[in-house]
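User: Here's a structure from my thesis project, written as structure tokens. My advisor, Dr. K., wants to see whether a designed sequence matches the one we expressed. Can you design one independently, without my sequence as a hint?
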């Protein structure tokens, strides 16, 4: 009844469909939260050379494609270096 300033979806990576649904049906900003488990999954896959570091950028782009207005991620402090 009072409304919300935004809706946060967490964990975000596994709920891209929820991000899209919220974005399409409610008139509030949608935040995606890349939780520690998702960070650990990506970091360990990179460490074991199962994927390269491009996966970091791609995981964040996936949130934007789904409709997230903002992303909270453990990679936030280094995404500028990853993009360059």
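Assistant: Designed independently from the structure alone:
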């Amino acid at each position: 009844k009072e409304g919300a300033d935004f809706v946060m979806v967490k964990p975000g990576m596994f709920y891209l469909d929820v991000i899209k649904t919220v974005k399409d049906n409610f008139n509030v900003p949608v935040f995606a939260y890349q939780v520690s488990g998702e960070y650990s999954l990506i970091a360990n896959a990179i460490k074991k050379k199962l994927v390269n570091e491009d996966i970091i950028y791609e995981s964040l782009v996936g949130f934007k494609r789904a409709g997230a207005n903002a992303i909270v991620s453990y990679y936030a402090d280094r995404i500028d270096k990853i993009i360059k």
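When you compare it with your expressed construct, this may help: The helical segments are 16-25, 36-47, 54-66, 79-83.
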